[in-house]
Design brief:
The complex is a heterodimer of chains A (122) and B (183). By secondary structure, chain A is an all-alpha fold. Among the domains of chain A are: 44 residues, no CATH class; 41 residues. Chain A is built from 5 helices and no strands. In chain A, α1 packs parallel to α3 and α2 crosses α3. Chain A is elongated and about 105 Å long. Chain B folds into 2 domains: 100 residues, RNA polymerase sigma factor, region 2, helix turn helix motif (Rna Polymerase Sigma Factor, Chain: A), CATH 1.10.1740.10; 76 residues, Arc Repressor Mutant, subunit A (Orthogonal Bundle). Chain B contains 9 helices and no strands. The chains are: A mainly alpha (122), B mainly alpha (183). Chains A and B meet through α3 and α4 of A and α2, α3, α6 and α9 of B.
Chain lengths: 122, 183
């Protein structure tokens, strides 16, 4: 057993054997390190908060609200009229877009393209 | 009740069974968030958000891919890391000297004062750790997760977890030791 082995164990937070403990007590360097590690472990142990009173109830209440809201959305989705459905909206907007494109094409053909270009009299 | 069975029960419609998950993991989760450096109010918000997200995504939990603990702590770790980044950006990170926990003990006897001082220094040192070392160390230190589970959460090898924990302990010890040696 060497100082390095003892110090490695101390740094890793592992428990020391009896021999290593005796060594740490007699060796100034290992002893200082053991003291610092003990301070670190004690300080870490201090960072243990209590769970706030009623925490689980508050979370369960939030979950209950969410479940109710989800149920309402599902209810609405299953009782919508056909034109409120997503596919109907998409179909109607596609049809509107098609009509718009056809109108623009008709406008271009009738007004913007001169009749001459089709071989007619100027 | 086994975690996998519990999840099946909840997904099957028994919402109240989620309370068992809450009671099983609330303590380690609060411990994790405290060691991450969050104040009481932030701890509760993050813990609540973790459980709510877990509940919403419970049907996607696959026990074959890991434990419920590591799945839950993955959510918590991501939320905590995001919040830590946000806090750092806002430069509002709680300075340990002014934390309620530290203040509460300052007026006590010398031993309490010393302990509070060590906790304050530890918090500062923890806060100074690089993000990867920080979250790995905190997850490993809460004591409720195996190093294998920590590796799953962090998405790294077991050896990496061990070396990160070792490096983090060394840095923290150095930070505490430096102050102890100074006059």
């Amino acid at each position: 057993m060497t100082c390095t082995e003892t110090q490695e164990k101390l740094t890793r937070g592992e428990a020391l054997s009896e021999t290593e403990r005796d060594h740490a007590l007699s060796c100034a360097e290992c002893g200082a390190l053991a003291a610092t590690c003990a301070t670190l472990d004690a300080a870490l142990a201090e960072l243990v908060p209590n769970v706030p009173e009623g925490f689980a109830d508050r979370v369960m209440a939030s979950i209950a609200r969410e479940v109710v809201a989800r149920g309402a959305v599902h209810e609405r989705a299953t009782h919508t009229r056909w034109y409120e459905r997503r596919w109907a909206g998409m179909l109607l907007s596609s049809a509107a877009a098609l009509v718009a494109i056809l109108n623009v094409a008709r406008f271009v053909a009738c007004v913007l393209i001169p009749a001459g270009s089709f071989g007619g009299a100027p | 009740m086994d975690d996998a069975v519990l999840v099946q029960t909840i997904v099957g419609g028994d919402v109240e069974a989620f309370r068992v998950v809450l009671l099983r993991y609330e303590r380690p989760l609060f411990r994790f968030l405290a060691r991450f450096g969050f104040e009481a109010a932030a701890r509760e918000d993050l813990a609540q958000e973790t459980f709510l997200r877990a509940f919403r995504a419970l049907s996607s939990f696959d026990p074959a891919r890991g434990s419920l603990a590591s799945w839950l702590f993955t959510i918590a770790r991501n939320l905590a890391a995001d919040e830590r980044t946000r806090i750092r950006h806002r430069r509002e990170i709680a300075q340990s000297d002014s934390t309620p926990d530290a203040r509460a003990q300052v007026d006590g006897p010398a031993e309490l004062h010393e302990r509070a001082d060590a906790v304050a220094r530890l918090r500062r040192a923890l806060d100074g750790l690089p993000a990867a070392l920080h979250s790995t160390f905190v997850l490993a230190e809460i004591g409720d997760l195996s190093l294998k589970e920590v590796a799953e959460i962090e998405g790294c090898a077991l050896g990496t977890v061990k070396s990160r924990v070792h490096r983090a302990r060394e840095q923290l010890r150095a930070a505490l030791g430096a102050k102890e040696r100074s006059p």
